[in-house]
């Protein structure tokens, strides 16, 4: 199974970005379905769009992600794809010569170990692609973990 889970957008000003995207999507920016949390090195807002999500990320000052924003500007940053064959997919991609950045974290979902493998822009024609282990991701974000 591969399932597009969300699209990530890097932004300079979260309040302005939330307003803009909610206006575009016809949503009330105080809607209870919109989630805000602290990401790894950023403030994150998740806006539901049907069965997918739009993830807005404002980098913390002084982080590599802030450097990315300064160098590349606002815009599309990544696609996040769930797979239920994570280990096999990572192995296959490595065998094909892709450089993957592997990460395991309990942030932002305490109680779950989120496993991600990032295909880097130099290998994907300019876009980060995150493969997420669906078996470890919590159900409330579309994963398979109880």
CATH superfamily: 2,3-Dihydroxybiphenyl 1,2-Dioxygenase, domain 1
Fraction of helical residues: 10-25%
| Largest sheet properties | 8 strands, mixed
Distance between the terminal alpha carbons, to the nearest Å?
A: 18 Å
Class in CATH?
Alpha Beta
Question: Low-confidence spans: pLDDT under 50, at least 5 residues?
Answer: none
**Cα radius of gyration in angstroms:** 15 Å
Strand content: 35-45%
Q: What is the CATH topology? A: 2,3-Dihydroxybiphenyl 1,2-Dioxygenase, domain 1
Q: Give the overall average pLDDT.
A: 91
Q: Looking across the biggest beta sheet, what order are the strands in?
A: 2-3-4-1-5-8-7-6
List the secondary-structure elements in sequence, H or E: EHEEEHEHEEHE
Number of helices: 4
How would you summarize what this structure contains?
It contains four helices and eight strands, in the order E-H-E-E-E-H-E-H-E-E-H-E.
Report on the architecture of this protein.
With 146 residues, this protein is of the alpha+beta class. The protein has one domain (2-141): 2,3-Dihydroxybiphenyl 1,2-Dioxygenase, domain 1. Helix content is 24%, strand content 38%. It contains four helices and eight strands. The protein has helices spanning 14-25, 64-72, 86-95, 121-124; strands at residues 2-10, 35-38, 42-49, 52-59, 75-83, 100-105, 114-119, 128-133. It has an eight-stranded mixed β-sheet. The longest helix has 12 residues, at 14-25. It is globular, with a radius of gyration of 15 Å. The model has no long low-confidence stretch (mean pLDDT 91).
